[in-house]
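Hi team,

As requested, here is the filled-out complex form for the zinc ion run. I kept the field names the same as last time so the parser does not choke. Let me know if anything looks off before we queue the next batch.

— J.
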Amino acid sequence: MFYIEEINNKKILKSDYLKNLKHCFTTRESVIRSADATLKSQIEQNKSEFCEYFGISTDNLICPTQTHGCNIEIAKIGQRDYQNTDAIILTNKVQAVFLNFADCTPIILYDTKENICAVVHAGWRGTVEKIAQKTIEKMIKEFNSSPSNIVAAIGPTIDECCFEIGEDVYKMLKSSINEQETPFKIKNEKIFANLKKINYIQLLDIGVEKIDLCNYCTSCSNELFFSYRKENGTTNRHSAIVKLV
Ligand SMILES: [Zn+2]
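And here is what came back:
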């Protein structure tokens, strides 16, 4: 179950499925990523508060450059720069990693046995590419993970109520899952997709059994989260952050 907590009176969202992992999804109040210059000092303040919360130095709060691709990297101590990276695996206890979102699906994966984790950015393109599954495949190959030990939390995303897609995107998303599944809705001849559900099905398909699914739609809950569609292309982002203990 997802629940709201506060750091210095600023709301964050957490999943009780990830209780042994330091983590959170930021909200508008706890924002740490924006291209808006007027938010710069607030973001610096929030970042330093998160570093204190996670018990790390600001040099070790790292964030890759996301491109809606399918490249998956492993965080390395001392390395801050990760180009063209939409999923990152964390195996050290020194760094905290965050990725940024405004409608796309944030997914946190935690292997409770190997004590490693990952953050995944799955927009519709990443979802078509099955980026969450590919991240798990990399965790299996490189770190001996087993999907049955992996717990997943799927965070705030634009939902079926608001995420209208075209026929071409519909076909691509549909091809990424088993044909019996229908995480789509047709209303007034328009097609709407449930990105959380599609990622949920992909995670089940690879053998993840414990998946926490967040109820928030970023567009409907725009007072809490950022929505690229609702806000006509905002540069503000909410983030998913993880730190191993
Ligand atoms: Zn909605």
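Two things worth flagging: The domain at 2-243 is CATH 3.60.140.10 (CNF1/YfiH-like putative cysteine hydrolases). Residues 159, 161-162, 217, 219-220 surround zinc ion (CB under 6 Å).

Thanks,
J.
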